[in-house]
């Protein structure tokens, strides 16, 4: 039986039917008087501040993500800013990206940061970690890393889009000293060290001020096959006495795969054993969860269990959401275990890889490894996941959707001069309004939905979401997961009245709908003003939809 760890090992070693469709074209912003559900916003029950960083991204040096997706080169015909795709910069600026993780992923533990600095024409070409998974006609840049996008170019990209860089260090194949040196290269003051001079010679005299540092990636697997105890010792060695250069450094430990409670417990006990003061070196604990198993319980095999990105039926739709909903219990479960050793919860969760993972076959650019086309299903999945993070702001300090462009749950697809925003990208643009808000409790009552899972009746919630307050503005996002039924809801805002508002809706009459290079606007959000109601607001959430209500309170 193949697991993700084996898959990754194998990858580096070896090489629509519309079963369900619905017609709800008249259901964009419908109105109704009969309600079947209730959403009550408890303004007096704050949960915590929503860290903007939970709307973060992940860009690994993997196939078409960096080379073609982000980097086209300064001499390219594709419009670019210093080699970085201009269309991507322009789009990302509209979604307020807080942070981008780079260069991996599994790639990180094979990367020598020194290959990506200095004059671009002198940089070495190296075999990419993912090279053996590339198809033979894949561009050379996907197999043999040209190192044209290195530390400076990545940090420059982050500056252009207004995000903070999050660099993942190599723990498997470089010594701790190289980690200190990478930090020195990035953060030592102008003119202070040889590495600062090298940075200045490349046109970056000012410190790059990199705060977020990942200490390895998936150290239980591609990051070194450590036991949690071994990794705890490595983590302490890498983070002990790191020079600060006046810059706050936030170290992120390589956390569990899905429900690997032993990994979290073993690591936290290992740190506590050395002294609880060591938790001060650990800012975040990374959790990875991909929703991939659509086999309806038939297999746990990493290859056999996957579904198709474009060809799926209503049951596959619900199964994907069910896999994604596990995120909530993973957050609360790991949080509880972390609290056994760190009762003050000084360490927060960082979900630095999340999203659906389908089998190959739907690539927008044939041959791009791990690329899949996001549909309305992935938009609903992403809205649901971001709502989960919003509901746990005291636990989740950062999250990074895997991955930004030309990969798994991508916000954007690009190839040469072609570019489009996916339905997932539109969800990020809608949900940006939550960033930095005060999360408040939303009590949601809606009929549970049921579906036939190969002979057994299975249920899933009928409406869910999250709410945050920004001064007088209440931002409410709600997901209706039903492929067929609208939800007619009464929205009750305790102790407040609505003065004005807007509603933004993302849905489509076909649950398989997606955007492409040829048809970039099949799934796009629509916004309209809300007339202030005399009493409670009554709102219809169409089937298979993500809705954002921004309500200004009197
Ligand atoms: O996102 C693709 C891969 O998934 C990452 O490189 C790795 O960390 C995870 O297994």
What's the layout of helices and strands?
Blueprint: H1 4-13, E1 37-49, E2 56-58, E3 80-81, E4 84-85, H2 86-93, E5 99-102, E6 126-127, H3 140-143, E7 144-145, H4 151-161, E8 164-169, H5 176-187, H6 194-201, E9 212-215, H7 228-239, E10 250-253, H8 261-274, E11 284-291, H9 314-341, E12 348-356, H10 376-391, E13 396-402, E14 412-415, E15 418-421, H11 423-431, E16 438-445, E17 449-453, E18 456-460, E19 464-470, E20 473-480, E21 487-493, E22 498-506, E23 526-530, E24 537-541, E25 545-553
Parallel strand pairs: 1-21, 2-5, 2-13, 5-8, 8-9, 9-10, 10-11, 11-12, 12-13
Antiparallel strand pairs: 1-16, 3-4, 6-7, 14-15, 16-19, 17-18, 19-20, 20-25, 21-24, 22-23, 22-25
Helix pairs in contact: 5-6, 7-8, 8-9, 9-10, 10-11
Bound molecules: alpha-L-arabinofuranose.
Alpha-L-arabinofuranose binds next to helix 1.
Mean pLDDT across all amino acids: 94
Largest sheet: 9 strands, mixed
Strand content: 25-35%
- Which structural class do you get from the secondary structure elements? alpha/beta
Number of helices: 11
N-end to C-end Cα span: 59 Å
Tertiary shape: globular
Helix content: 10-25%
List cofactors, ions and other ligands: alpha-L-arabinofuranose
How many DSSP E strands? 25
Q: Looking across the biggest beta sheet, what order are the strands in? A: 23-22-25-20-19-16-1-21-24
Low-confidence stretches: 7-27
Query: Mind telling me the C-alpha Rg?
Result: 23 Å
């Amino acid at each position: 039986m193949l697991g993700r760890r084996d898959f990754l090992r194998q990858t580096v070693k070896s090489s629509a039917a519309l079963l369900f469709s619905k017609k709800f074209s008249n259901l964009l912003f419908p109105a109704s008087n009969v309600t079947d559900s209730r959403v009550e916003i408890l303004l007096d029950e704050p949960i915590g501040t929503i860290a903007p960083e939970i709307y973060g991204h992940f860009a690994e040096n993997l196939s078409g993500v960096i080379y073609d997706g982000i980097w086209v080169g300064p001499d390219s015909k594709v419009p670019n800013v210093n080699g970085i795709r201009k269309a991507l910069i322009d789009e990302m600026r509209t979604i307020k990206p807080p942070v981008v993780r780079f260069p991996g992923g599994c790639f990180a533990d094979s990367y020598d940061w020194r290959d990506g600095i200095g004059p671009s024409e002198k940089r070495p070409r190296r075999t990419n970690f993912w090279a053996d998974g590339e198809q033979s006609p894949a561009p050379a840049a996907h197999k043999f890393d040209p190192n044209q996008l290195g530390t400076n170019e990545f940090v420059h990209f982050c500056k252009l889009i207004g995000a903070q860089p999050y660099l993942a260090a190599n723990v498997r194949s470089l010594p701790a000293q190289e980690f200190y040196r990478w930090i020195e290269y990035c953060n030592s003051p102008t003119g202070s060290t040889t590495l600062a001079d090298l940075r200045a010679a490349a046109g970056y005299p000012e410190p790059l001020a990199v705060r977020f540092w990942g200490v390895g990636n998936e150290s239980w697997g591609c990051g070194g096959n450590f036991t949690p105890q071994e990794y705890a010792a490595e983590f302490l060695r890498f983070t002990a006495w790191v020079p600060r250069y006046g810059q706050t450094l936030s170290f992120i430990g390589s956390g569990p795969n899905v429900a690997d409670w032993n990994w979290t417990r073993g690591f936290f006990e290992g740190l506590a054993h050395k002294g609880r003061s060591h938790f001060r070196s650990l800012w975040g604990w990374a959790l990875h969860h991909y929703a991939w198993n659509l086999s309806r319980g038939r297999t746990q095999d990493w290859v056999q269990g996957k579904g198709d990105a474009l060809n799926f039926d209503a049951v596959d739709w619900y199964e994907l959401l069910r896999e994604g909903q596990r995120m909530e219990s993973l957050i609360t479960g790991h949080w509880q275990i972390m609290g056994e050793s760190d009762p003050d919860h000084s360490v927060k969760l960082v979900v630095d890889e999340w999203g659906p993972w389908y089998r190959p076959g739907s690539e927008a650019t044939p041959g791009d490894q791990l690329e899949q086309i996001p549909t309305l299903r992935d938009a609903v999945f992403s809205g649901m996941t971001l709502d989960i993070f919003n509901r746990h702001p005291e636990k989740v300090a950062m999250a990074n959707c895997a991955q930004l462009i030309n990969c798994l749950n991508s916000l954007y697809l690009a190839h040469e001069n072609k570019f489009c925003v996916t339905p997932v990208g539109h969800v990020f643009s809608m949900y940006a309004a939550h960033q930095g808000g005060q999360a408040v409790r939303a009590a949601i009552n809606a009929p549970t939905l049921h579906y036939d899972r190969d002979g057994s009746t299975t249920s899933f919630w009928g409406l869910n979401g999250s709410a945050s307050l920004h001064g007088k503005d209440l931002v409410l996002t709600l997901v209706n997961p039903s492929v067929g039924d609208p939800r007619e809801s009464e929205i009750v805002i305790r102790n407040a009245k609505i003065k004005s508002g807007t509603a933004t809706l993302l849905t489509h009459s076909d649950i398989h709908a997606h955007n492409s290079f040829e048809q970039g606007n099949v799934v796009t959000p629509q916004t309209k003003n809300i007339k202030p109601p005399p009493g409670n607001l009554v709102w219809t959430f169409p089937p298979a939809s993500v809705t954002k209500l921004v309500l200004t309170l009197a």
